[in-house]
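Minutes, project check-in
Item: structure for the 49-residue chain
Input as provided by the requester:
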Amino acid sequence: TLWSYLWRIEKVTVFCFYMYTNFVTPCHHYSQMICGGVIWLRCLHWIGS
């Protein structure tokens, strides 16, 4: 249903934000964009699966 779909998106968004803040923040300045990109690509792949 729509509600379960929205709940899943919300859950994934929270998870991705958690991943982002915990793994991108400590990244070296120059590799931060790459590091963040990899995490978000993984999150998007997880949403699509």
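Outcome recorded: The two ends are 17 Å apart (CA to CA).
No further action items on this chain.
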